[in-house]
Design goal:
The complex is a heterodimer of chains A (343) and B (447). Chain A is mainly α and 343 residues long. Chain A is 69% helix and 7% strand. In chain A, helix 1 runs antiparallel to helix 10 and helix 2 runs parallel beside helix 5. With 447 residues, chain B is an alpha/beta fold. In chain B, the strands form 4 sheets. In chain B, strands 7-6-8-11-12-16-17 form a 7-stranded mixed beta sheet, with helices on both faces. The chains are: A mainly alpha (343), B alpha/beta (447).
């Protein structure tokens, strides 16, 4: 029983990341009709916003300590971050420690700017081109973004820890009256799940209850008619693209303490997120979220040693297997609409 | 008409002249092409095949730095590095056999097919006489086999699978780096002292040649001292989040987790294991422990604080204080501003060993190099007295058991040396079952 609860919990945080990326993907597809293969790179850029802020806060002055030597036997250069000089060791140290939550604020304008630049600078020229062209150009863009990040940050993962207050794990077992230590779950993953729920909930409320959201939903249903009503739908779609980039970026920022960011992390999520979108139904927001969590949890269960021992290799194919089965039974995906990417 | 009979003497003379004439070009060609890619003119080209893109690109970059340094030293530049401490004095700093050393580079991308393609291109287009480098056993095995077929020498870079000098060994291939068996043999006594003989180990293993042989070796060594292996789960090489593999450990009665992972896999699985509180756990009345059998300092950096206190092994570390290591660290550190990695060390040493073998054998012919390296004993290159064993072309030398440092003094100071395990303790017979099944074959000069 506790094994099942643990794998459901595991699936929730992985599902949160899938759902957040898939939400942005399907939003862009639903509004702009663009299949954006650079969306995983936006997730990666978000994580590197956290890395960048951390490095900016650690930017240091060097003083020579003649009493100690470095690896070459020269006097050791001791680094002191500027923030510690300016605000004192306590506040400066706390700023560095809390760099990941602070990066949320830092990443929002950065990701919105990246989103607008991408849409205005490249994507808009591909609105009327076939999906294959869109896939090629966005995939190329993803590789370019990856290589830029690798140039500046290297290929190795960069540790970006959560604040000390969130390091450690929560004992669910003790909470629900089971054996202490039988179900433990890291605090930061709980934070990630709550954060994802907040973003997803906020996104839905925004689209459901604001005039802007209403116009966007109308545009998703029938772009031409909305245009004929004199509404500048293009401008709104640009904003939607920026918001989708921002959601992917925030998902990346908060993911940084879970796995040390590296330049390739976007690609690792991209393919699975596309499967999530297809399973959920192209252009369906609730479908993307539901499929994100469903596939995240299934992937966790398939990785259990009991399951792998029974069906070797199942952990590597489960998502694709489920996707095939769902598409055979429901060709438009779980919550797909008629007419999207058809005919 | 006068008939001139052919005399016996005349026939023999004529036959001799004709025979010599016919044989001359053949003999001439044979001597000119006695081996493939024979260096012409005043230069010789070496091929450095390292990951320049992909997840191991940083390690590849460090390998390339070491190669450039080695070439500089071979050509008489810089401070000479380990040429000054190497026990063999055949190299004079005037290139190899008087020929200036030049190099070409290839990108393995840490993919076997890409690595073979780049090695092939360097051999066929650039005329590389020797290929070296790499940061993965899958790549090493693939390129070693290509070099055997092509008739050039392969001096392996970082490759730790038993198979490289086990079932996949080749006469033209040589490995200076240690292997999974040696890691296990060195680690086992240290683990016994630190954690006792009554332990239950749970293994997570990268699902490819290196992971399999590493797991087999460490399981055998720990079981021999009384530990029980409760489970071994193979994880896909492409896995990034290991939480689904870590949580079943919580359900088992294991009190040790062995992470047979390298590079990004190791960084992520170790980080996940620490996040799930494994290190704070008490099982069977003992502290739960994590072991990383193969450490890479470059990559351990990615795991940050999580490596503290965790045991592992390494081929070489910059903090060693023998004169060879000190010379290399000084030379590398002055040129690049930071200490070299173990990958850089093994690549630098392999280049020197190749050049030295050519000098001692007096020829670039791969068969001469093989003869010079087989059974070669040397010292002064950072690992103490070392033997290049003739039977499998594996170096036998001391192995370092290390631990993640509790209080690092710099960003490079991540590991501390716990024990230098003597070579005798990690030596195994050439026909050991973990290395069985392969055939070294004979050297191939390619012509």
């Amino acid at each position: 029983m506790d094994a099942i609860i643990l794998q459901v919990l595991n699936g929730l945080d992985k599902g949160s990341a899938y759902a957040l990326i898939a939400l942005g993907l399907t939003l862009i597809f639903g509004t702009l009709g663009v299949v954006n293969f650079a969306h995983g790179a936006l997730f990666m850029l978000g994580a590197f916003c956290a890395v960048t802020l951390n490095e900016l806060l650690r930017f240091s002055t060097e003083t020579v300590d003649p009493s100690r030597t470095d690896f070459l036997g020269n006097p050791l250069k001791v680094k002191t971050p500027y923030v510690e000089n300016w605000f004192g060791p306590d506040i400066g140290g706390a700023m560095i420690e809390w760099s990941v939550p602070l990066a949320i604020i830092f990443s929002i304008p950065v990701m919105i700017a990246v989103g607008i630049a991408m849409e205005r600078g490249l994507i808009k020229f591909f609105y009327k081109r076939p999906h294959a062209d869109q896939i090629l150009v966005t995939f190329g863009l993803a590789i370019v973004l990856q290589e830029i990040i690798k140039y500046f940050f290297g290929a190795n993962p960069i540790p970006t820890p959560a604040p000390d207050a969130f390091i450690g794990s929560f004992d669910f077992g003790a909470l629900v009256g089971m054996q202490a230590g039988s179900i433990i779950y890291p605090y930061w993953r709980l934070v990630y799940f709550a954060f994802a729920a907040l973003i997803i909930g906020g996104g839905f409320l925004f689209l459901q209850y604001t005039t802007f959201g209403m116009v966007v939903r109308a545009g998703m249903a029938d772009r031409e008619t909305v245009g004929l009503l004199g509404i500048n739908i293009d401008k709104r779609f640009t904003i939607m693209f920026a918001l989708a980039a921002c959601v992917a970026g925030l998902a990346g920022v908060m993911y940084a303490p879970i796995n040390s960011p590296n330049y390739h992390m976007g690609m690792d999520f991209l393919v699975l997120s596309f499967v999530v979108v297809v399973v959920g139904g192209m252009g369906s927001l609730p479908g993307a979220v539901a499929a994100g969590f469903l596939l995240g949890i299934l992937e966790s269960f398939a990785s259990m040693s009991q399951v792998v021992n029974l069906l070797p290799g199942i952990n590597q194919i489960i998502i694709y297997l489920v996707a095939i089965i769902i598409l055979l039974i429901r060709p438009r995906g779980l919550l797909g609409r008629k007419g999207v990417m058809e005919g | 008409m006068i008939k001139r009979p052919i005399s016996r003497r005349g026939l023999i003379k004529t036959a001799g002249v004709v025979g010599a004439g016919l044989a001359a070009p053949h003999l001439f060609i044979r001597s000119a092409n006695a081996y493939f890619n024979e260096p012409k003119g005043g230069t010789v080209t070496l091929g450095f095949n390292v990951p320049q893109s992909g997840p191991y690109a940083d390690e590849g970059a460090d390998e390339l730095r070491a190669y450039e340094l080695a070439v500089e030293h071979l050509n008489g530049g810089g401070d000479g590095g380990m040429l000054n401490t190497f026990s063999s004095k055949a190299l004079k700093g005037n290139g190899i056999l008087g020929k200036k050393v030049e190099f070409v580079t290839g990108d393995t991308q840490t993919k076997s097919d890409a690595a073979r393609a780049s090695a092939k291109s360097m051999i066929e287009k650039d005329g590389a006489i020797m290929i070296t480098g790499g940061s993965s056993s899958g790549v090493a095995v693939a390129v070693q086999s290509l070099c055997q077929e092509a008739g050039v020498i392969f001096m392996a870079g970082l490759t730790h699978s038993n198979d490289t000098t086990g079932k996949d060994k080749k006469a033209n291939g040589f490995r200076h780096f240690f292997n999974g068996y040696m890691s296990a043999a060195a680690l086992a006594p240290v683990l016994k002292n630190a954690y006792g003989t009554d332990r239950k180990a749970y293994h997570l293993t990268a699902d490819y040649t290196w992971g399999w042989t590493q797991q087999e070796s460490i399981a055998a060594a720990t079981e021999a001292m009384g530990w029980e292996t409760v489970n071994n789960v193979l994880t896909p090489l492409a896995a990034t989040d290991f939480s689904a593999y870590i949580t079943p450990v919580l359900q088992s009665d294991a009190d040790v987790l062995v992470l047979n992972h390298y590079g990004g896999n190791m960084v992520n699985s170790l980080t996940n294991a620490v996040q799930f509180g494994l290190r704070d756990r008490m099982v069977n009345g003992k502290n739960f422990e994590i072991i990383v059998p193969l450490y890479s300092r470059l990559m351990a950096k990615g795991a940050g604080e999580n490596v503290k206190g965790i045991f592992g092994s390494t081929n070489w570390h910059w903090s060693l204080e023998d004169e060879g290591s000190v010379a290399f660290v000084q030379s590398f550190g002055k040129k690049y501003g930071f200490p070299p990695s173990q990958a850089a060390h093994t690549c630098y040493v392999q280049t020197l060993l190749y050049a030295d073998a050519v000098e001692r054998g007096g020829s670039f012919n791969p068969c001469s190099v093989v003869e010079a390296l087989e059974g070669f004993e040397f010292d002064g290159l950072g690992n103490g007295p070392t033997l290049y064993r003739a039977e499998d072309h594996q170096c036998f030398k001391d192995v370092l058991v290390v631990k993640g440092k509790e209080n690092p003094t710099s960003e490079f100071d991540l590991l501390e040396i716990v024990e230098v395990t003597p070579a005798a303790q990690v030596t195994y017979p050439p026909d050991h079952p973990m290395f069985a099944g392969g055939d070294l074959g004979t050297c191939n000069p390619g012509a």
